[in-house]
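Entry for the shared binder. Reason: the reviewer on the internal report wants the predicted structure included alongside the sequence.
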Amino acid sequence: MTRFDAAEATERRKLYVDAITAHRERGRGFLTFEADETALESDDDGAEPSDSALGAPWIQFADGTINVDCTDDELDTLKSVLGEFPAFKIDEINRPEDAAGVNVRVSAKADPNRIAQCLDAIFQRVYELPDDVRVWVVEL
């Protein structure tokens, strides 16, 4: 794998596919994607483009499982997004006592292209990130 970030939708989906493929070849741990922290900064009108209560949004993937942290409101949106991806099902929701949100594990039994579409939908709609958000592969 030669690149580790992308900011345009098509390029982000290619990044996800390439990273998933490389991760499967290595076969260890979680693959982690993280939205660039600048996506959490106020835009020109002072509006907050994303709910940053949990910090920079991230998504992990390993062995057919997507792992995310989200707020309760984001969880409702996540459920809606997953409704558009029938092969993806919530396996587990954990509500740690000392955390501001919930941890969700999603079964993602699909090809890398479909997983990439779902990952981008999660970043865009669940975390309400701008269309040009830069996503990084931070752990492979």
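Summary line for the report: The beta strands are 5-6, 31-35, 58-62, 65-70, 88-94, 102-108, 135-139.
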